[in-house]
Amino acid sequence: MSASDPAAVIILAAGEGTRMKTRTPKVLHRVCGATMLGHVLATARELSPERLIVVTGDARGQVAAQLAEHAPDATVVVQERRGGTGHAVRTVIESVGLIHGTIVVTYADTPLLRAGTLAELVRVHESGGAAVTVLTALVADPAGYGRIVRDPAGGFAGIVEDSDATPGQRAINEINSGVYAFDGDLLADVVKRVPTDNVKGEEYLTDAVGLLRGDGYPVASVRCEDPDEVLGVNDQAQLAWARRVLNQRVLARWMRAGVTIHDPGSTWIDVGVRLEPDTEIGPGTQLEGDTVIAAGARIGPGCLLRDTTVAAGATVIQSVCESAAVGPGASVGPFAHLVPGTTLAEGERVAGHDRPAAGRGKPGPQAGSPRHEGAQD
Questions:
Q1: pTM
Q2: CATH of span 8-230
């Protein structure tokens, strides 16, 4: 087993997400065209784990249904009561049995976490022979997070929760992300011993780290250079922030690939969109779903394209296109609306006053199959 191929990745997705104040489960809220859970699954798959395990709170809920449809390779474990992160991991081991090798534990509400960061966590963990390796980050405002306490030599000494920290410890700005790489055999033993002597009476995985260190096992840490990656999404404001951060990553990737984006501040591109070099994206443009834009096409300003194919040299200005196909050199807009099924032939022109009926012209090329790149940009 290589350092990039852990024995298992456990994704914790059983939180209720009450602060989102919506009917949609927190981890199913979308960020740049994919659910938060979808992003984290994509990240986990890049590690090529032997087992991909997702902890949910309801065997027949929306999260489990999404997994059955979009991630049938994942093992779903139900945490029937909210007993804390330690309880969630203990439930996994009691359900699937002992897992030998490295186990990565992460969260379904961290859509910005990169696969490269998790791969580095696994590499350091396995190369150092640690019982557990903790992913940490330096943040400007550490309030509410567990602090990483270090010894005089800079080595890992422990984690102190915010509520238990002294004034001096609260000044520490290195936080515990809650993401870990564990030795599977040691994890199976220690989760049985995690205490519940806290305000909520829950089992916290943080305590497993302290127990392993108390048993004399080495504990290591990896510092995530980009603190945005590890900050979870708990409410609508944080969700909007995550969308902006991920969108900036997506835009930067496309600009480096040769796409001209006139105003990144007003341009939104989903992770499943595909663009060829020499395309030009004007201000106020949204490209959603499985939209595909060929070389030399110009989109915008003021456009919304969803699941639409635009061929080479075509132009779309101030228009909405839904599940449509725009042929080579065709022109759409201003103020046009291409409804689902619309196909424009090569060189055809459509403006707001002459909207084509669905199916007009010959069938155009179909949009490509979805890509789930998640936060790996």
A1: 0.90
A2: 3.90.550.10
Rounded to the nearest 5°, which phi and psi values hold at 100? -85, 145
Residue with tokens 């006053």: 353
- Residue appearing with tokens 């002459």: 354
pLDDT for residue 372: 27
Fold of the domain built from segment(s) 258-350: UDP N-Acetylglucosamine Acyltransferase; domain 1 (2.160.10)
Q: HSE on the CB side for 270, CA within 13 Å?
A: 23
Q: How confident is the model at residue 361 (pLDDT cuts 50, 70, 90)?
A: very low
Q: What is the DSSP letter of 3?
A: T
Q: Work out the mean pLDDT of the chain and round it to a whole number.
A: 92
Domain extents in the chain: 8-230, 258-350
Q: 6-36: b or e for each residue (b if 16 or more CB lie within 10 Å)? A: bbbbbbbbbbebeebeeeebbbbbebbbbbb
pLDDT of residue 359: 57
**Neighbouring C-alpha atoms within 13 Å toward the C-beta of 142:** 23
Number of H helices and E strands in the chain, helices first, is: 8, 27
